[in-house]
Amino acid sequence: MATTTTLGGVHPSQGSQNSVELENLARFAVDEHNKKENAMVEFVRVVKASEQVVAGTLHHLTVEAVDAGKKKLYEAKVWVKPWMNFKELQEFKHAGDADGSASFTACDLGAKKGF
């Protein structure tokens, strides 16, 4: 049986987690969360990224960020419609602590840009 991509299904993002576009989306998600919640979360890196074609693209991002001096993981969803110059944070939630445990694979630990 052949494998096919389900229309509207979530699939890995094109490119690496270190791409400038994904980093910009993750920084946008953190900034929007900080504005809405009056928080001081600081972006560190994108751990994982996938996307879903909707009326535009819904980016599913796992982001490592620092909150109150502790590294944490957050799940963010950013909806983008480039033809309308539209970008909106749909969801931002705590997904666990980034304590260096086995939750990271060698693949996740790529080189950081701009640090």
How would you classify the helix and strand content by structural class?
alpha+beta
Averaged pLDDT, please? Answer: 83
CATH topology: Nuclear Transport Factor 2, Chain: A
Count the beta strands.
Answer: 5
Please give the alpha-carbon distance between the first and last residues: 45 Å
Strand order, biggest sheet? 1-2-3-4-5
Topology order in helix (H) and strand (E) letters: EHEEEE
What is the CATH class name?
A: Alpha Beta
Tell the overall outline. globular
Pfam family, one: SQAPI
Protein name: Cysteine proteinase inhibitor
Keywords: Protease inhibitor, Thiol protease inhibitor
GO molecular function: cysteine-type endopeptidase inhibitor activity
How would you portray this structure in words?
The protein has 115 residues and is α+β, with helices and mostly antiparallel strands. It has one domain (17-99): Nuclear Transport Factor 2, Chain: A (Roll), CATH 3.10.450. Helices cover 16% and strands 45% of the residues. The chain is built from 1 helix and 5 strands. It has one helix at residues 20-37, and strands spanning 10-12, 42-54, 56-67, 70-81, 86-97. A 5-stranded antiparallel beta sheet has the order 1-2-3-4-5. A hairpin with a 1-residue loop joins strand 2 (42-54) and strand 3 (56-67). The chain is globular.
